[in-house]
């Protein structure tokens, strides 16, 4: 897997490049101080992953992400925590808050590599059947039965959806909105542009995130009031 770095700070670019070499991360094939040069490079080279700073002159990372090819994954790198929720709304793989260490960088890179591997292995995935209790997804000449009750949450990844169940993760060949509509259970609630959760598996939550036994999901600002109202009023 390859990557490029976009950051207007020279020291930040050099440090990230060095850290990626230390953790045996993806190969860095380009490093840019501005989005103009980066956009030209992306139009001419196939790029798997983009490390993108947010606060930059002229064009911010949040604005530039719309010009990045859909086939490229994005990890935001910034010193401003207030952009975290918005970055997930833009289908970012992860959000690194500066300064971050090798361990945190490795976690983000592993997530990107895992997603990349899932897509490569599941290009021929198809939804074969959907009932009131389960769906059947075809993957690599096998048929997987996914019980809705076993799904903890759905994670939208561009034109695909990563289904997190109690026992495995499966890529579904449809976007988050489409697969959510195929699940008839009222316990599934949209909590951001990128996530739908099954409230039956929630351990705890606050105003910013929902906790499961294996991780957490951010709550989007526009979805927060509806989620808290439904969950606390017992409307499930």
UniProtKB/TrEMBL annotation:
InterPro entries: CheY-like_superfamily, LytR-like, LytTR_DNA-bd_dom, Sig_transdc_resp-reg_receiver. Residues 135-206 form the HTH LytTR-type domain. GO terms for molecular function: DNA binding; phosphorelay response regulator activity. Residues 2-113 form the Response regulatory domain. Gene3D superfamilies: 3.40.50.2300, LytTr DNA-binding domain. Keywords: DNA-binding, Phosphoprotein. The modification 4-aspartylphosphate is found at residue 53. PANTHER family: STAGE 0 SPORULATION PROTEIN A HOMOLOG, TRANSCRIPTIONAL REGULATOR-RELATED. This is DNA-binding response regulator, LytR/AlgR family. The lineage of its organism: Bacteria, Pseudomonadati, Bacteroidota, Flavobacteriia, Flavobacteriales.
């Amino acid at each position: 897997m390859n990557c490029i770095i976009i950051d207007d700070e020279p020291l930040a670019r050099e440090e990230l490049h060095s850290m990626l070499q230390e953790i045996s991360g993806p190969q860095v094939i380009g490093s840019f101080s501005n989005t103009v040069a980066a956009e030209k490079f992306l139009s001419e080279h196939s790029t798997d992953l983009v490390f993108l700073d947010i606060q930059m002159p002229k064009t911010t990372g949040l604005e530039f992400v719309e010009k990045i090819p859909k086939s490229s994954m994005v990890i935001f790198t910034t010193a401003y925590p207030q952009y975290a929720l918005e970055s997930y709304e833009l289908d970012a793989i992860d959000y690194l808050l500066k300064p971050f260490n090798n361990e945190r960088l490795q976690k983000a890179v592993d997530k990107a590599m895992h997603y990349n591997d899932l897509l490569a292995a599941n290009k021929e995935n198809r939804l074969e059947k959907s009932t009131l209790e389960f769906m059947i997804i075809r993957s690599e000449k096998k048929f997987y039965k996914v019980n809705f009750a076993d799904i903890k949450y759905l994670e939208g990844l561009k034109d695909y959806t990563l289904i997190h169940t109690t026992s495995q993760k499966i890529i579904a060949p449809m976007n988050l909105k489409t697969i959510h509509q195929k699940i008839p259970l009222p316990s599934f609630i949209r909590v951001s542009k990128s996530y739908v959760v099954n409230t039956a598996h929630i351990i705890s939550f606050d105003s910013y995130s929902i906790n499961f036994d294996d991780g957490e999901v951010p709550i989007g600002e526009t979805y927060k009031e509806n989620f808290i109202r439904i969950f606390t009023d017992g409307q499930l």
